[in-house]
Sequence to fold (525 residues):
Amino acid sequence: VTAEKTDTVARKFAVPESWPLILGFVVLALPTAFKLANQNWSEESGAQGPIILATGAWLLLRLRPEMHRLRSASNPWLTALILIPALLAYVLGRMVDYMTFEAGGVFGVGVAMLYTQFGGRFLRKHWFPFLYLAFAIPPPVYIVLALTAPLKQFVSSIATAVVQLLDLPVSHQGVVIYVAQYQLLVEDACSGMNSIFGLLAIGLFYIYLVRGASLLYSGILAALMIPIAITANIVRVIIVILLTYYFGDEVGQGFLHFAAGIFLFVIALFLVFALDAALSWTFFRRRKQA
Amino acid sequence: MISRRDALIGSACVAAAGTAYALTPRRTLALLPHGLRMDRIVPTEFRGWTSRDVTDEFAPQTEDSLLAKLYGETVGRLYTDPASGAEVLMLLAHGDVQSNELQLHRPEVCFPAYGWTIDSSAETDLALAPQVTLPARKLVAHLEQAQLSTIYWTRLGEYFPVSGNEQRLYRVRAALDGYVPDGLLARFSVEGIAPKHAFDLLARLIGELVAAVKPTARAPLIGSPRAGAMLAMGR
Fold:
C-alpha cells in the first residue's frame, strides 16, 4: 500500500518535473501564436483558429486523468521520428514564412512530447482532440485558392439560377452577378470556404462531446456538413441579390449582408444538430443490436 | 529530478527556436524601386502595338480579395498587333514581399482552378538579345471552345523559377542568403490562334516590349544581369 501511495505521490509531481518539455514547447509556440494572431486569426478565413485552440486545449486538459491512467512506455526512436521532422518543419516554416509548416511543426512537437510522457496507448484511444487541434493549422494557401475559385463559380451560378426562377432580371458572368442595374462581385469570403472550416470544427467538437469518438459516425456527419455549409452560402448570396434588387446597393452591402452570414451559419449549425439527432438514433441503436 | 530525456527534448526545442530566429531573413530585396510602378515602366505603345487598360476586367481588385493580398500591383493590358490585329492580354502582378500568404501563383495551378484544362506546358528560353535569354513557360489551355496560348515567367528577386518546386527552392535559397525577395508574374496570352503561331506572336511581342522599356528600367521585368547585359550591348 505504501509503495502504491508513494507511486501516486510521485505521479502527482511528475508534471512539474517535466518542466524542460514545457519550457521548450512555450519557446517554440509563443512566436508562432503571436504571428497567427497577427496574420491569420484577424482574417475571416482564420477566425476559427483561436476558438479551436482554446476548446482543443480544454479537451486535452480534461483528459489529464486519462493520460495518467493509460500511461505506457514510449519508444525513444518513435519520439525522435515525430520530433525531428516537426522541428525541421518548424525552422523551415519560420525561415520562409510558411505558416502551414511552422504551425504544423508546433503541433508535431506537442504530439511528440505527449507521446514521450504518456506513451502510445493514450494517443490511440484519445485521437480526437489531436485531429481537432490539427484544424487550427492554417492550410496551404494554394490549396485554399484551388478550392475557393471553383466554389465561388458554383455558388454564383446556382444562386443566379434560383433567382432566375423568380423571373428577376439577373445573370452572371463568372463570379460577377448582374441584377437589374447593379453588379455584385462574389468575393472569396462568399465562397463558403470559411464556413466549411468553421462548421466542421464546431460540428465535430459537438459530436465528440455528445457521442464520443466514433471515426465512422464523425466521418459521416463531417461529409454531410460540407453540402450544408455550401447550401447556406448559396442562400446567403440569394438573400444579398434579393436585398440589392428590392432595397438597393446600400442595403445589400450593409449590415444585413453581414447579418445574413451570421444568421445562416447559425441555421447551418442547427441543421447539423438536427441531423445528428436523427442519425444517432438509427446509427447507435443498430450498433447496439449488432 | 529532471529526466535526461526531457532535458534533451527541451533543449532541442530551444535550439530549434534559436536557429529559426537566426535564419529568419530581415532584409528585403526589391528590384522595383520603392514608389515606382510596373505600369509606368512598361510602355503602352511601341513598334506599332497599341493597347488599352483592362485591369478592372481581368484583375478586379477589391480590398478583401486574395489578389489584393497577394500582389501590391496588378496591371492588365490588351495589346493589338499592328500586322494581324490579334489581341494579346498582358497581366503583370507584382508583390513587394514574397512570403507565406504573399507568393506568386503559377498559372498551371490557377488556370485549372478557374475551369481551364491545361493541354501542354513546357519550359522555354525567350531570346531577348544575342546571348540574353529569359527562362519562361509556354502553356496551352482550353475551356469549352476557347483555346488559350500563354507565355509567362515569374521572378523572385533575381531568380526566375520555371516550376513550382523551383519557386519553393528559390524562396528557401533567398532566405538562406538572408533576404526576402520581391516577386513578379508576367503573363501574355492570346486566344483563337493555333498555338504554334500564337507562341511566335507572343515571343515577338515580349521581345519588342522589353526592347521598348527604358534600358535602365528593365531590371524589375527581366532581372538585373539581363538588363545589364542588354544595356552594355546598347540595346
